[in-house]
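Hey L., structure's done. Input below.
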Amino acid sequence: MLRTVAGVMKWQTCQTQNLVGCKLRVGSSPTAGIRGIASPCYSRPMKSFTDIVAGARGFGRRRFVVAQAADPVVLEAVEAARREGFCAPVLVGVRGEIEAAARSADVPLDNTRIVDVAEKADAAAAAVRLVASGEGDVLVKGLLQTSELLKPVLDKTTGLDRKSVV
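Output:
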């Protein structure tokens, strides 16, 4: 069992037939009962892309923080996820470059949060800070090298807490 910061709720691994391996949040007292499921559970394997999208919808709308989002392909993918109902994009990068990439891909940026950074090199650290602070749910690699994203992710003082990453 893992305790949350407040110490009020606990996580237990469910062992029922249909929810094997899922994390259930239960109250701290025996009478509190089950409060909710940490993540959707599936009793059957996913066999198609449609199954994957349906599974993603089960998580509800999540804030996808895209590090260096100035890439038409990445913006198209994020827009498709938004249309499917499971993504609320937060785009991090140089605003002018993000807007130019969106125009070239014909992706609307209406009601999309853009976090403007001075230089491309600052995008990864800014995106990681957003996720670490709780302003984002999912960190997405945009138009940058994997090593450029992993450096701020693994930073011991400002990176993501490895205990909270699934």
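The helical segments are 49-58, 72-84, 95-105, 123-132, 146-154. The two ends are 15 Å apart (CA to CA).

-- N.
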